[in-house]
Amino acid sequence: MSEGLPTSTEQPRWLSPDELATWRRFTFLMYRLPTALEAQLRQDSQLSFVEYYALAALSEQPGHRMRMGDLAVLANSELSRLSHLISRLEKRGFVRREPDPTNGRCIHAVLTDAGHAHLVEAAPGHVAEVRKLVYDVLDPNELDGLRTAAEKIIDCIDSRQ
Amino acid sequence: MSEGLPTSTEQPRWLSPDELATWRRFTFLMYRLPTALEAQLRQDSQLSFVEYYALAALSEQPGHRMRMGDLAVLANSELSRLSHLISRLEKRGFVRREPDPTNGRCIHAVLTDAGHAHLVEAAPGHVAEVRKLVYDVLDPNELDGLRTAAEKIIDCIDSRQ
DNA sequence: TCCTATCGATTGAACTTTCAACTATCACGC
DNA sequence: GCGTGATAGTTGAAAGTTCAATCGATAGGA
User: Fold this and answer.
1) Residue range(s) defining the domain that contains residue A139
2) Considering A92, A115, A138, which residue would you say is the last residue of a domain?
3) What was the pLDDT predicted at A13?
4) Together in a domain, A110 and A64
5) Number of structural domains found in chain B
6) What is the CATH number for B49?
7) Can you tell me the mean pLDDT for A24-31?
8) Is the CB of A55 less than 8 angstroms away from the CB of B1?
9) What pLDDT, on a 0 to 100 scale, did the predictor assign at position A160?
10) What distance in Å separates residue B96's CA from the closest CA in chain A?
11) Which residue in the set A56, A134, A147 is minimally distant from B153, CB to CB?
12) Could A152 and B142 be called an inter-chain contact, meaning their C-beta atoms sit closer than 8 Å?
């Protein structure tokens, strides 16, 4: 059913045609942009979007290491998903697991040298793609708007538990 | 690796700290918003985001029917994904397949009465969620900016094949 | 007419994500 | 010290997606 035309007798606050058009463009973007970026990453570096950002997050930590739970937050993943993902990266030799000496419950994901090297190879191509698809296309004003909008929506989601 | 600090000798056009911050917020949004919307849809209507928009697209067509390929475009899916998805919806009685009499290669996905009824049940809750998370949060100016930004990025992606 | 290429769609296998159940460790009150 | 509950992470199965192979229908040329 179209969100533009009420056919139920329930809530009356449907989207206006204009709002609907914006929504369609935006959902399309939320699908297409990740797809486009992943295509480049897979092609050139055999990495998915999440894998790249997991490695990237590790590379920014002192000691190239991080607790699984913290990494899950940075990589926008649930713990279970991250655990599987790290297992796969471990098999490829990009990451290893080490127990946290200060807390027996915690596990550190540690970037290996091979993993770091792979990331260093992958980063320029990925960043170039982000530039081409986003930063070269929007002017600073539009970028700022995007950031504000993103922050507002995220705050709203966060504020509901 | 951080996109903010070059460690490779290749391309020099890294993101500035400001650009990087914007990018992080935006990727976070691209993950969180669909997740939040899907949570509501699954909870209240046992539908995924794609399933909802596939049913919605069908409901807007004359005869509540559409060729698989066209539906794939509207639902932001590849044909294979859509084929599996329609099979699942078919099992639940929301959709059926019919051959296209005008072209033996084509198949129509047809919304059943049960499927339409389910969509009518689902729509108000979903639209309310979109309102709450997006339209109630952004002012018309910001919405407009979002739309322009989305259009520009999509155009850019489309223009590269 | 036949041969080939292309199109629209399906299929099954491989892969990834999700979900629920489980293990192990720690924190706290008693 | 000893249960009880919360925390951190893993695991396996189920669900969903992606990829490559396939199949039938059609279009276009020799």
Assistant:
1) 126-161
2) A115
3) 80
4) yes
5) 1
6) 1.10.10.10
7) 92
8) yes
9) 77
10) 17
11) A134
12) yes
Q: Is the pLDDT of residue B7 over 50?
A: no
Q: Do the Cβ atoms of A106 and A69 come closer than 8 Å?
A: yes
How high is the pLDDT of residue B38?
95
Q: What is the DSSP string of chain A?
A: --TTS--SSS---PPPHHHHHHHHHHHHHHHHHHHHHHHHHHHHHS--HHHHHHHHHHHTSGGGEEEHHHHHHHTT--HHHHHHHHHHHHHTTSEEEEE-TT-TT-EEEEE-HHHHHHHHHHHHHHHHHHIIIIITTS-HHHHHHHHHHHHHHHHHHHT--
A12 CA to C15 C1' in angstroms comes to: 43
Instruction: Look at B28 and A56 and tell me if their CB atoms are within 8 Å.
Output: no
What is the value of pTM for the model shown? 0.89
Does B16 reach chain A within 8 Å, measured CB to CB? Answer: no
Residue A21 lies in a domain: no
> Would an 8 Å CB–CB cutoff place B17 in contact with chain A?
no
In chain B, positions 113-152, which contact chain A (CB-CB < 8 Å)?
116, 119-121, 123-124, 126-128, 130-138, 142-152
Closest chain B residue to A32, measured at CA: B154
Residues A54 and A108 in one domain: yes
Residue-wise pLDDT tens digits, B26-84? 999 999 999 999 999 999 999 999 999 999 999 999 999 999 999 999 999 999 999 99
Residue A95 belongs to some domain of the structure: yes
pLDDT digits (tens, 9 = 90+) for A64-110: 999 999 999 999 999 999 999 999 999 999 999 999 999 999 999 99
**Nucleic chain D: which protein residues 5-64 of B have CB below 7 A from it?**
48, 50
- Asked, for residue B20, whether it belongs to a domain, the answer is no
- On chain A, the residues whose CB falls within 8 A of the CB of B76 are 27-28, 31-32
Does a structural domain hold residue B147? yes
* Residue-level pLDDT at A14: 87
CA distance readout (Å), B141 to A18, A145, B85, B152, B154? 13, 9, 37, 17, 20
Express each pLDDT in B100-158 by its tens digit: 999 999 999 999 999 999 999 999 999 999 999 999 999 999 999 999 999 999 999 98
